[in-house]
Fold this sequence. Notes:
By secondary structure, the chain is mainly β. The protein has a domain at 527-576: Dockerin domain (Type 1 dockerin domain). It is 8% helix and 38% strand. Strands 25, 26, 27, 28, 29 and 30 form a 6-stranded antiparallel beta sheet that branches. A 5-stranded antiparallel beta sheet has the order 1-38-37-36-35, with no helix packed on it. Strands 2, 3, 4, 5 and 6 form a 5-stranded antiparallel beta sheet that branches. Helix 1 runs parallel beside helix 3 (563-572). The longest helix is centred in the N-terminal third of the chain and has 18 residues, at 9-26.
Amino acid sequence: MHLCFSRTRRAQSLLCYALLSLAISSAATSTRAATPSLLVQSGDVADDAAIFAGFSAPVIIVGGEVAFMGNLETGVSSVTTDNDTGVWAWKSGATSLVSREGLSSVPGASGARFDSFLATSLGVSGEVLVHGQLKTGVGGITTSNHDGVWDLGASSTQLVRTGATIPAGVSSSSFTSIGAPLLTGSTAATLAHLQLTVPDVDSTNDKGIWTHSADQSSSLVARTNVTSPPAVPGGTFSNLVLQAANENGQSMVYGRLEEGPGGVAASNRLGLWRMDSSGGTLVARQSDAVAGVSASKFGSFDTATINSSGQVAFDATLQIGGGTTTSNDRGVWLYDGSASTLLAREGDSVPEVPAATFAGFSAPRLNDVGQTLVQADLNIGVGGVTAADAGGLWLLEADPAQSQLIARLGSGGVPDMPGADFSSFDSSAFNSLGQVALSATLAVGGSVNSNNDQGLWLIDTQGGSMLIARKGDVLAGETIESIKLADGYAAGTRGLSDAGDVVFLAEFASGGSGLFLYESELEFLSSDFNFSNVVDGDDLAIWQANYGGALAADANGDGRSNGGDLLVWQQQYSPVGQLIAIPEPVSGLLLLFGCIAIVRQRTTWSLVGRLL
């Protein structure tokens, strides 16, 4: 009987030996800290004896890797205003320079130097994506070729740059602008304009959306007057807005169609499309029927977001008429790839607030298991709602019975602070465990005053919510004056990882600042591929479907889905009353380790497990 995947005896032996070693070495536990730990603070030495002066809000991914932008004290160690900003990474207790203004070389631009850094994100395979601009007059850089996106981590490559990158699908042209690129872990999506001084490019077709990957591949997603809008035969885009993107090359496009071609009129020219390089799907269109609202039509669309599975959450405004009025014309929907489901609508009842009704919604957030987070307003005077408690955060699910209140203004429920009330929400980050990191301001009263009225909380939908840090607290010998949290919608762009770890910027009363990491005390199971909080047969099926690929079922963080990840699944397997049949070739591996009496133990992964 073959006990391993390889076809030769030698390969079988080597692989079995490697898997056995992995099983033994990976059966270790890790204890997470209960309080925030200091990563770096102003006054610390950066590089070349330079001194940190301040920071931006940092981002984090599963595995505890952190990236941040910072600035240095001028006048110290040859630091001037021409080289005092940079991007740094933190991992396993060590801070390292990624790139620095005026000094570091630039991939794809020999002799050039960075002038500024605008945004950054982290990928699970070591990518550190940076949107930056180059110094003009250095290395042949001008204002026409200075704006771009680079991976300054694993691959050290240029993804896209104005005046230098040849756009996919357009020969002999270049980008004149790339807007504000949407960074994910390893890709960037850009709403860009093309150079007009080339054949076949004019003011009617010079705008488009492209995706660019750290592997240097680039794809055209949509282009005005060139790309055919899905589900609109004969139609053409006259304008495009890039709203969201994922790492799989899919982008959410809010498009306006050219009136006339394809029967398009002023009443149906707007729509939302999920697009990629091979085509796309119409998600919703102006004047189309509305899921969950009979005799109603879409009027316009506000914002849309997309997860790694291609699910889409969006909010929209309906046309007045047919029972739709100005008091119930806005809502939030979830598109699953084939159909949309109404999640909430103005005038609808509110989860966990009896007799109250929704009055409006902010832009939705969507995690990788299809849960949607929205900040919403309630109708004052309905169900006892007052101006002080007419707002909150809700987690919405396709099954309304599963939707729940996360936090509400003016109604208590502040974790670890009995009797306190939230008065406003500052920023929030949402992960695939259904956890919300929330920076908020408290209402002054009781023990809350202007010296301690802001804080950062980790709110867990399964319980265990907690206060992480609060204005007035002392961390690293400094008193906190304010707290800032990166609130990007995608993993690697926010201050909350999919393992529940939180990284944040604390500004001190003394004028300095520091970056801190809160390591979640909640157990993270890296082989829980569907984020159900249980490792079971469903996760095994996901591993089997992704065997030989990358990331989708990578439990041990090596960038591949293979036998090592199966062993992690075996160790963490903890079904609730579930018996499963394990298919070949899985059974051979399990039999091998059963015969040699490996003792299985449940593993908590801290700085190893990585998920999409």
